[in-house]
Fold these 3 entries.
Entry 1:
Amino acid sequence: MVTVHLIALSFVFLTMVISDIQAVQWFFGKKQVLSEEHLRRSHYAMWAGLIAMIVSGMFLAYPEADYLLHNVYFIAKLLFVATLIVNAVLIGRIMHIATTTPFATLSSHEKIVLLSSGAMSLVSWIAAASIGFFVL
Ligand code: HEM
């Protein structure tokens, strides 16, 4: 099951690199707007990767649930995963902005929401993976 967990993580990593390349192109104005089709595909791929991580993680955790549920690092990992779920819902609601509006023309509020969501996602993925690799 660890192998499934790691394959799902590799899939998420690849999807994130592809999505972030698009996001950076939009951010710097190299692309005025992004393709709705590409964005929707990347978003669904991230959801599929996240769900695969959660399901394989549950199988991994089940045999040692008593110990893990008293482990502060595991609880922290679950909080990062919860943040990823909330953030994925938020991204689903706001990503259409990138298909209609150049980043430079957005209001400061919209820019802050988008950049915070990107930062939250990056930090949570790195934190959840680091706890898995170096602590559990
Ligand atoms: C969604 C984000 C997640 C990421 C990025 C992530 C990442 C990782 C990584 C990199 C490992 C180390 C695998 C290895 O030993 O080489 C790991 C292990 C583990 N993960 Fe996750 N994981 C995630 C979600 C979850 C969830 C939701 C659960 C439980 C419900 C979970 C439970 C575990 C357990 C129990 C281990 C230890 C496996 C072992 O060594 O016996 N993970 N995780």
Entry 2:
Amino acid sequence: MADATAPAFTAAAWEQALARHQLPGARCTHCGAIHVPVRAICPACHSQAMEWTSLSGRARLAAFTSIFVGPSAMAAKGFDRTNPYLSGIVELEEGPKLSVRLVGLDARTPTLEWIGTPLVATFVDPAQGEGGRTELAFAPACGADPAAGAAG
Ligand SMILES: [Zn+2]
């Protein structure tokens, strides 16, 4: 049942949640699918019966790439051939997969052993005076050994 007091399932509402360092999803009350970022219409069953759900923030690394030549927005943040960054696909504990930035791993020494590493959500706030939005990222879970990969 839709909660009339809950914010609409918009990109702006999701970004506001990230700015509060919260990771919400939209759960379809018709088929149970969870969508991240949130969306107003379920792509699985086309229902509009969505509800906000909080997510654990726990995930595993499904795939990643090390980016040495990124878009201009990342170049402006100081990423380049000598300072690459990681972008990956993470599978949330609740099931959805999403594309996010990875932090806490060295993009200069990527290894397939990272696949399966337990991760936790982290929130990268824009630098003081920079403006912009809080970015969702994932980092190795506390105590996780990225080299241990799927064994963990
Ligand atoms: Zn659905």
Entry 3:
Amino acid sequence: MTLPTPSNPGPFGHAQRKNFLFPEGFTQFNHGSFGTFPKVVEENMLGWHRKAEQDPDRWMRRGLKPALEMIRGRLGEYMNCDKDELVMVTNTTVGVNTVLRSMKFVPGDYILQLTTSYVSVDRTINYIADTNKGVGIINVPINFPMKDHEIVFRVEQAVQEHMAKKDGTRIRLAMVDWISSVPAIVHPVKALVDMLRSYGILVFVDGAHAIGQVPVDLTWLNADFFISNCHKWLYSVRGSAVLYVPKRHQHLIHPLAITGDYNNGFENEFAWNGTQDYSTLLSVEAALDFRKQYGEEAIIHYTHTLAVEGGKKIAEILGTNVMTPDDDHQVANMVNIRLPINNLEHPKIETPQYLIELMQDKYNAFAPCFKHNGAFWCRVSAQIYLEMSDFVRLAHVLKEIIDDLNAEEKA
Ligand SMILES: Cc1ncc(COP(=O)(O)O)c(C=O)c1O
């Protein structure tokens, strides 16, 4: 079977636009931040929503829990784990807070993270340290380009340096990304999990971007905790994520909202968060069906290849480089391309707002730009509804924007 590629997209590329809700003239280059979903998934979500409204009592008291169990079953099959180790939450931020705020940290406990942690994850870790006396944070500096083995080496070095202090403290938990946000990089997650666990450290994998971008096998990964959004790359409706807690840790973890299901079993505690609309969580069913229709391998192959080739194309047009030119495996569906700005301190790039408004209002196309390791970068997301011609257009948009900024500097 030949898989779709950017030069032979088959059912992907612009042929997919009709399956999504984009208006004419808008191109989505930032699937990574908030995701988006096909029309059939939206219809499925509305179907669950209407089912609840037709007989709210029957639904809330009898329908909801079996429906959530069905979704956990489908996700368990998809990620190779027991469905009873999975619970649904609305997003990764909630999942991270759920685990970190459930755990009882004691004085002398440290939480380790990499400096590429997502902002709300980093802030949550800081909140834990601020509100639990004697809890510290270890930030491991990570700047790209950096090879996989070097990342593992740096993290292990930080662990060993901490242990060498022999001050009676311990690294209790490490937070590691599977795919970081900015810069978007696939981390050597399995090597990090194995290394950190070998030191007796609990490992929480932030897989916000993982499911749908890379194959996820939770039995293989063997992490202590794992969270992934479904609403980013899996194509479910916004407000759907899955939290993995293996049985050995379930007694430690409770949802952020304690309800009448407190102490009524791990799955039950998470199946009822009080009265709300649960249809976004249930839309995962249709997202998985949509993916099955085209084939998991075909989707992942197309989007990854488009990210790698499209990123190199943009860099060629700009006369720059992608962040990890020799390590295409560090790219999943999001690629970082260097922007040739002359002055990194240009006032218009001090905050993201100027470029957000310019790209959205003038070009009807937006991709986040950010500073990292002494350079200015743009993160571009590949998706099944994009083709190489979109990347070429974006390259010219970026070139025009940067040329204008550079010209202003000279004037
Ligand atoms: C690595 C990472 N972690 C956590 C999050 C938070 O996800 P959410 O806003 O869906 O809670 C994001 C969002 O982009 C992310 O990129």
